[in-house]
Amino acid sequence: MFKKRLFSLVLTAGLILGLAGLAMAGVPDAGKSVAYTNGGVATITPGGAAPSLASYNVVVTVTVRDGNNLPIPAYPAQDIWLDDNGSADINLCQSGGTADAATDGAGFTTISGVLRGGGATQSGMAVYVSGVAVEGPNGTPGVAKSLAIDVNSPDMNKDRAVDLSDIALFAAALQPPHNGFAADFTHDTPNNVDLSDIALFSSWIGDSCP
To answer: Is the pLDDT of residue 11 over 70?
Structure first.
């Protein structure tokens, strides 16, 4: 009788574990998914008039894995995106930072295209999979993994349009000492705002989210 009960308990436990594994299969896990980048600095605009991340030599690689630590193939590109790491310093347009393509057979994809949005951040960015940030070192629960990517935009007030209010902010950045990351669109001399930045800013006036 004891052996039968023991067998029954073992069988039940195995079924429960099996069902738990099935429940995790194909569902992204923020602690097991991985995001990396070579880092860098880029300028973005709401309408996508600025160059792509790749043009700034910035590429983000993402591997989407489930709770069983298995890669998830064909995961939709629109459900994988790059955004701020919780600082709320930037405001992207809808689908303004999505992956280049759906994941391949190894659960792998990249984010290297044109970002669309406004604001500026020097505190890094994060990858989100279905709205949940890929977690930091050792899969720290609830903590976004911060990627060393800084961005700025002529949409300086991050309302998703480059307009009169941004002109005023940019004009303020031109005042001595001509210093400010948010308005240094050429990234030629760190945080130095000069004539080349004026030319770029002027070309982007009127740009807005699609």
So the answer is: no
